[in-house]
Amino acid sequence: MPRPRKLENRGLPEGLYHKGVKGYVFKRIDNTWKSLGHDKAKAVVLAKRYNATFRVDSELTHVITEFCPNKGSSNGSPLSEFFDRLRIRYEEDEQPSKETLTLFLNRLSKLEEVLGDRIGDSVTLSDVNHVLTLFTTDKSNEVYNRWLGFMVKVFDYALDEGVMTDNPARRKKSRRIEAKRRNRLSLTEYKEIWLAAPLWLRTAMALSIETTHSVNEVCSMKYTDFEQLNQPVVEQGLKIYGYLKIHRQKVKDKEASRVRIPVTESLLQIIRTSREDDVASPYIVHRIPLKRSNEVSQNCDHYTQVNKKYLSKQFSIVRDRVGVQDNLASDQRPTFHEIRALSIHLYDKAGYDPQARAAHTDSRSTEVYKEGHIHWVTVPAAELSVV
């Protein structure tokens, strides 16, 4: 006759015990133990399900993967095995950029630390909340929503492979994103920063304000992207020396993302001036790093290419050095990205249509031509020549 159960365990299903701060634990028929957390109702339900399956005649049994892992089944394998497959599949299926892939893999490693030894269908909304608490406490709503979206994607892949039969992350509500707080940049402030900037940063700022494009495109512009004409032509009263091809990465899959901007006198001067440092670089925006290492900076493919994060950071440093909007908190002062907004505003004010130039949408005034199998949108000639 088995000994009586302790008072705190009386009324619990067979095999289920309460272990104080450890919460509820369950003893399987093979004498192995399973932690069931601190939720009594959930622990009781799971224990009853197990007992109804495994503590009966063998003719009535069937596999419950939460308690009896079956290595021959994807449902019964720990999530860590699925995560190993996902690392390969995600890159093959979605072909993300190097930066996006690195971020995904970093988050997946963190998720594996928390859930890697779990079975797919044992993951609940409580686990989703636990992960969000671990990695987004004291972070912005944007970070919270990115983590939630990441888990939705991972668990969708798990559903696709039969590792899970439900995606608990889809039952979680995302948080409201507040409107951007950063202040706009004025033309006068732009000029103050430009005058105090080194040549490479001046080049980046000038390219941004003339082309309407932001840090991603500016850091990627190569001299070979400039198609110089044998003889200048005149278009809308402006002398055109060639065309600068820009592929906007944020909307790279849309036709309007590939623009071909006429190179006027102002833009030609920016390209020429960028060479005055005599640095041999394929990139229009370039610099010799102060510390030369064997490795090329992340997001770059040449040691002279400027990392977009470095560019944004240095712009903010120069901005603060000259005192632009220093009466505001640092997170409210304009960043390099505000040059794009200023450029679009100035082109619109000058009577030009900035939409096609900025690669937002196709414009009726644009001319589409074909090179191979890629469409480029040739935009109307225009220039600001602000400096």
Automatic annotation (TrEMBL):
This is Integrase. InterPro entries: DNA_brk_join_enz, Integrase-like_cat_sf, Integrase_recombinase_N. The keyword Acetylation does not apply. SUPFAM superfamilies: DNA breaking-rejoining enzymes. The keyword DNA-binding applies. Keywords: DNA recombination, DNA-binding.
